[in-house]
């Protein structure tokens, strides 16, 4: 397996940086255009006098021209400084840092489980060996994909936690509390990915190179794993990159359903109270995750398919 | 020593949702050790199914019944999957058509060859790389160690096919089954691959060749079986079969091969469409020039794909353009079609500048120039039915009520019935698709049709029908053709003049009879020498 040439890697990384900049800027502009005064937000329920207002404006540099504020924001962003939360009066990096870990753990766990399930389902049900299993599987997948994830979460909760008490109802303390949210988020992903993968495997199985592979005396399992699955992975990898991005959004809701700590709670509070630096940071962070994951997906595609490496 | 392949009364049927379909209906087949046997037939004749049945790969829905089915003396009728895996690659190797898709495009050719070595434990793991190199060397791939690390798309068509053959030989099978092994290749490369197969056979390998092209298999086969509708209609030693074919179908196949000697006569037995000449268009001026190209040059980076190409096409004339893949003939076609701007040179179509002008100025004349491509499926919108595909090209002034009548009339001209109106391209056979493409092209009453390899993807007999159709339409309408093909026989059959291209430049041009009878350029000579010729002298 050859290494992708440096140039195509660099091109993708550069494109990622541009996307990040656009995301950060768009979020900045959107919040700028939103109604309400920043000073009001900062004062909140505190004492409101012209003197305090003037102090706040001076302290946060709100009297500077908008362009200067924007450039200052970008400059600090490049250096990893996300600013201070208006509401909590603490560095945003600290606020998010505390809550990032639970969300990330949940997302990565769900993505891993989803991909594994999809791979197993696709390999077992691809081809025409077990038509009944295939029909059952695609029906279930369709159901999972079209059901909102919070509903899946509520059903799992009411059966496994309330009825049988197998898992805790809420909280994020131990590993057992991670099980249900992970499954909830993983099931729709598994359903969607399994469909794409199986479709890819089916198409690959019809290709002449599979006939050639079989004519070499390979077992059906090797034909699937070594030849067909790899072709099916190409569209699935692209889709998986996108799915992981949506996982973060999904996690926000699921964290509420299962009462888990995480970015969900932070985001909700920041948006409702117009805590601009925190909202900006969450948006930029989500964009960064999207960019990183999708760039990774593109690079994985380059590794899988040598034909894409032609410059 | 007994026969390597011994088959008696083989039947293969497929279970389909619409009932059982019989693909093979009782054939006998033997291949002796060291013998080369060919099965010839059109698509759907059952020849490929027969070949695949021999390695147990006829398909999951296939039902196989035979009085005898033996490979290397072993009855394989009761073989389970595990037994078949011992046969595949070890007793019989399989080579398919285009190696670009018959080798896994995601894996290096070395890995594909090594896979056979590993599966059948031919050599120890540490010796595999060396054996892969040896095998590539055996099939005359230069720089075997470097090539082994490359992917199929990085190799030329000929090298790829050699690598595919190497992978089939890796398990040291006694029998090689080759299903259309040279069909996707240029004529000179085809000759090289046939020479390679002949060489392996001289080294003791038995060959079962499957092809639609009698001329190709006749080069190396000892015996030929002609299949039609799942039955063998005739078989015998190659020489006898070519010289004195007994069955009318064999004769029909032989007659369908276009060549110098077939000029001016019909290739197909079917009656052609009525030569209903349309009323002559007022603007038709016989004898003048439809298209003039001068000094065409096209570069991509520092690679010159077309170099100083010039020619004219007279009204009603057929200009053949021959050359191998990479010779630049398709680039010339795209420039002439007004789809690609040349870096240098000009094209004038109907005495109007055709290059270096805005598409807006070309548009009024666009309908006068039509294109027929090798793969019509790719040029049809898959969601459009035949009626819509053809009606799109009708004169916009024709009233809605009359359009269907016009489409039906065009279908009749290309020998198709009106019951195809509602069909979608996928539901048509290859020959029907090409006829629809022709109907679409002639719908605008063009003065020039560019035919880019229009019959390369078709069976010999279907090719014959389409060539006859083109000849009829040309005679009736006075349409000029720019006929691009790698098949010299086809060009010799149809063209008035011919242009031979190599490495982007025209190496020779002139009347087709002169160029092909007294070639002056070495390249033209090598093309002609590689042409598989049918020795059919003495046949009535």
UniProtKB/TrEMBL annotation, chain A:
GO terms for biological process: transmembrane transport. Belongs to the binding-protein-dependent transport system permease family. PANTHER family: DIPEPTIDE TRANSPORT SYSTEM PERMEASE PROTEIN DPPB-RELATED. The keyword Chloroplast does not apply. Keywords: Cell membrane, Membrane, Transmembrane, Transmembrane helix, Transport. The chain crosses the membrane at residues 12-34, 104-126, 142-166, 178-197, 233-258, 278-304. It is found in: Cell membrane. This is ABC transporter permease. It holds the Pfam family BPD_transp_1. It comes from the Bacteria. It is a multi-pass membrane protein. The keyword Nucleus does not apply. InterPro entries: BPD_transp_1_N, MetI-like, MetI-like_sf.
Automatic annotation (TrEMBL), chain B:
Gene3D superfamilies: P-loop containing nucleotide triphosphate hydrolases. GO terms for molecular function: ATP binding; ATP hydrolysis activity. It holds the Pfam family oligo_HPY. It comes from the Bacteria. Keywords: ATP-binding, Nucleotide-binding, Transport. Coiled coil: none annotated. Transmembrane segments: none annotated. One of its GO terms (biological process) is peptide transport. Signal peptide: none annotated. PANTHER family: D,D-DIPEPTIDE TRANSPORT ATP-BINDING PROTEIN DDPF-RELATED (PTHR43776:SF7), TRANSPORT ATP-BINDING PROTEIN (PTHR43776). Belongs to the ABC transporter superfamily. This is ABC transporter ATP-binding protein. It comes from Micromonospora endophytica.
